C-alpha cells in the first residue's frame, strides 16, 4: 500500500503527523468514497509529487471511475475558484463582489457523483487553498445535503494532514544531506 510507504517516509520529527495521517485514513468518520476522494483532491491541491504518487494509485483502486474523476474535477475547479474568490474577498473594494464572475463552473451542476461527496471534496480543497469564501459556500452546500459538523471537520482534518505531509516530504527532499 503506497500510503503506508508515505507514512513511513515521514521523518521522526513528524511522528505526530504520521499518527494523524493513520488516524484519518484508518479510523476516520468518512465513508470510503468520501475519504479517498478527499485524499486525492487534496493531494492534487498540495502539489506534492510524493504525496500524489502515494495517493493516486490507491484512490484509483478504491474509487469508481466517476468518483476518481469527480475528485479531480473538484481539485481543478477549486484551483481556480480558491484564487479568484480569495482575492476578490481580500480586495477592500466591495464592488468586485457585484461583478459577474465570468469563470465556468459547469461541474458544480453535474459532478458525476453525489452532491455531498463533491461538496465535501470542495471543502477539503478550499481548506488547502485558504479561501474563506469558498469554504463558507461549500460548507453550507454540504450541510444542506444533511452532513453534520463532524463530517465537515473530518474533511478539514484530511486536508490538514495531506498538506502537512506534502510540506514535510518536499522539505526533506530539499534539505541538504537528505536523499
TrEMBL record:
Residues covered by the Carboxymuconolactone decarboxylase-like domain: 94-174
Catalytic activity: N(6)-[(R)-dihydrolipoyl]-L-lysyl-[lipoyl-carrier protein] + a hydroperoxide = N(6)-[(R)-lipoyl]-L-lysyl-[lipoyl-carrier protein] + an alcohol + H2O
Highest taxon of source: Bacteria
Enzyme kind, highest EC tier: oxidoreductase
SUPFAM superfamilies per record: AhpD-like (SSF69118)
Keywords: Antioxidant, Disulfide bond, Oxidoreductase, Peroxidase, Redox-active center
Presence of the UniProt keyword Oxidoreductase in the record: yes
Disulfide bond annotation, renumbered to this chain: 131-134
Pfam family, one: CMD
E.C. code: 1.11.1.28
Catalytic residues (positions): 131 (proton donor), 134 (cysteine sulfenic acid (-soh) intermediate)
Subunit structure: Homotrimer.
HAMAP family, sorted: AhpD (MF_01676)
Its job: Antioxidant protein with alkyl hydroperoxidase activity. Required for the reduction of the AhpC active site cysteine residues and for the regeneration of the AhpC enzyme activity.
Family designation: Belongs to the AhpD family.
Name this polypeptide is given: Alkyl hydroperoxide reductase AhpD
UniProt source species: Streptomyces synnematoformans
Lineage: Bacteria, Bacillati, Actinomycetota, Actinomycetes, Kitasatosporales
Amino acid at each position: 500500500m503506497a500510503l503506508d510507504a508515505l507514512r513511513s517516509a515521514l521523518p521522526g520529527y513528524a511522528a505526530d503527523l504520521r499518527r494523524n495521517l493513520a488516524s484519518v485514513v484508518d479510523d476516520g468518520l468518512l465513508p470510503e468514497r468520501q475519504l479517498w476522494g478527499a485524499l486525492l483532491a487534496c493531494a492534487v491541491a498540495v502539489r506534492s509529487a510524493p504525496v500524489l504518487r502515494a495517493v493516486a494509485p490507491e484512490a484509483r483502486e478504491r474509487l469508481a471511475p466517476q468518483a476518481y474523476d469527480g475528485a479531480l474535477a473538484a481539485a481543478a475547479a477549486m484551483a481556480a475558484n480558491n484564487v479568484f474568490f480569495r482575492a476578490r474577498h481580500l480586495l477592500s473594494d466591495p464592488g468586485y463582489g457585484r461583478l459577474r464572475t465570468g469563470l465556468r463552473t459547469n461541474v458544480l451542476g453535474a459532478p458525476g457523483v453525489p452532491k455531498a461527496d463533491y461538496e465535501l471534496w470542495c471543502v477539503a480543497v478550499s481548506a488547502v487553498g485558504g479561501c474563506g469564501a469558498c469554504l463558507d459556500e461549500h460548507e453550507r452546500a454540504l450541510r444542506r445535503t444533511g452532513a453534520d459538523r463532524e463530517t465537515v471537520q473530518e474533511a478539514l482534518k484530511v486536508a490538514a494532514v495531506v498538506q502537512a505531509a506534502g510540506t514535510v516530504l518536499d522539505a526533506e527532499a530539499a534539505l541538504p544531506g537528505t536523499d
